[in-house]
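Methods — Computational structure assignment.
A single polypeptide chain was analysed. Its primary sequence is given first, followed by the predicted tertiary structure written as structure tokens.
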Amino acid sequence: MGVLETIYIVCLICGVLYALFALIFGHTGADGMGHGHAHLPVFQPILLVSGATAFGAAGYLLTRFTSLSTLMVLGAAVILGAGLAVAAYFLWVEPMSRAESSTGYAMSQLGGKIGEVSTTIPVNGLGEVLVTMVSGTTFHMAASLDGIPIKQGTRVVVVEVRDHVLYVTPFPHEASEKEEE
């Protein structure tokens, strides 16, 4: 077994092990590298590993089952590995980068949202507010921003979020109706 054949096998085995690791633990590195730095798609782990795996598989198979020269096998393996990496970019990474990545949200995104009091909010205590988000409805601890009690069923506006507590005030339309009664 020659040096190149050993390199092909190592690339193939490492790629297969990476794929198994990604399958079991769920992270393939498709989100790229650099987090806030220049984004170079060629350095994404999923592309590097898929290219190296294809390089290893092509090199090993061409060495074992063809009569091509070592240099031709090496060239073909490089071309096939690079081709698979480019195909993976256009068929997997690029479409996934445009897809919605999460239905989650940050607490800081709740400011300005409309909710409904599900548990009455006392003057100096906490109640609970139901807020509808893209991902569904969520319940959050809430306190009155104005220091007034807010009854269950009242629509409220989230004014600010501090320490995972929503500070709310009655929705203006709801407040004017309560005053008229």
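Note: The longest helix spans residues 70-98.
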